[in-house]
Amino acid sequence: MTDPTQVSARRSIPGTHPRALAPRNLVLTIVLSVFGAIVGVQVLATVGITPSTSIIGALVAMTLARIPLVVFRGFRSVHAQNLAQTSISSATFGAANSLFLPIGIPFLFGLPNMVVPMLIGVSCAMLLDAWLLYRMFDTRPFPASSSWPLGIAAAETIIAGDKGGKRAAILGGGILAGALGAIFSLPMSAFGVALIANVSAMTAFAVGLLILQYCEVLTGWDLTADYVPHGLMIGAGIVALIQVACIILKSHKDSKPKPEAQRQAAAPGRTAATRAMNRNADDVRLGKALRLGAGGYLLITIGLTLGTGLATQMSTPMLIGFVVYATLAAFVHEFIVGIAAMHSGWFPAFAIALITLVIGILIGFPPEALVVLAGFTAATGPAFADMGYDLKAGHMLRGEGKDSRFELDGRRQQMIAGMIGFAVAILVVLFSYQIYFGDGLTAPINAAYVAAIQAGVSPETAVQLVIWAIPGAILQMIGGSKRQLGIMLATGLLISTPWAGLLVAAGVATRMIIKRIYGDKAKQSVEVFAGGVIAGDALYSFGKGLFKAL
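-> structure tokens emitted (550 positions)
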């Protein structure tokens, strides 16, 4: 990642971070959020994807900053631009993935009376999702130093627009390359991500993508039909949760530093002891967030069972089992989506929700309960991952934590901007979903959820899931919590994007060749170019998706 000393040298850090609720920032935030939410729902309903609008928000703020009027002068701050980028991104992913998609499942299943209770439930889940990432950002499971590739792309775009020069030229070349590749339907963000993210994680991701793309062609074996990716993800996900639990248990053990450690941390030059105390504080913060998150998801699940009428349709033991399973499934979905997004910039949220649904079918929950389960789990994860991207961008712009007070203040302002975006998303979906449903428009993936519920799953499927969960668990244990090999291999096997595997492999190879020739000297330029490639792909894909939707 970018050297903090280099970042701070390029830009002075102001004493106070721009306020998200300052009138000019608030107005821009609301306007961008309305636009992002409408575009997100429209493109998802008509094209089946959710466009990345993060760069759009930054570009709008940059454009306003160039207008020679006093009222727009504040947008010259990269931190104000970061708030704009955060709000539109939150509104887009929140409206499309966390709200509109889940409420389409009961509608498509023929249960329109469940739509409003589902909207209330998933709105609460979305807000909790974003808050949890805010509290867990820069802890050991979700460190600020990890890739969060879309966040790097947003930050590099803002930095280049602010400073210009050679950096802007490199970024422009990346944007051009990303857009040209996207014109030929190549997923260029995959190439850009591979230039930034953890090499081990990207290698596992590329292997999964390539196996999925070529296995059936070369051998005739349909991995998806035999639930191989799903089983691998289940095994890897279970181990990933155990790894997080170990961190939490360690935090309890180390949460109270010994008096000697405190004295060492207070002494001049004792940076190692100070870092140890900071890690302990982060671990305690993580543990508190997870406990509050578990309680929050439990309350939301109970509210959904009461609001949708499930409480009267199941026996008491079945009802208790459903509440426990749905709460756990939401937590698992959030973590796996977050881990995949952090390392790869891609998150198979739809596929992982389908996995939890398949397990729910095997358990034997009634169809109405499965509808609620599918919607609830699909709602958790996207807001969590998107907030991670936004906070990563802000972290880079603020000097990567060199000034801890300014960093924490900036995160808080981003959280406020994000929550404004999510609130706007709730209102947009509330007032527009009947129009889309009236025209027969829902998220295309909803048909897969409904078909799975109606068809059921055979006992043979359960056996397949158990068999393939074993290698997934083993691989995740081998890679550890930093590399996430099991999660990333399974993620690749769940994403059927043509050419993605080859482009990720090409990105990893290019990165290794450049490092071998130039060493670490070219690292910053590679990151800037990669950010441009991701931004170029996102901008072209956004325009293309919007054109199709209109």
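The chain has a mean pLDDT of 87.
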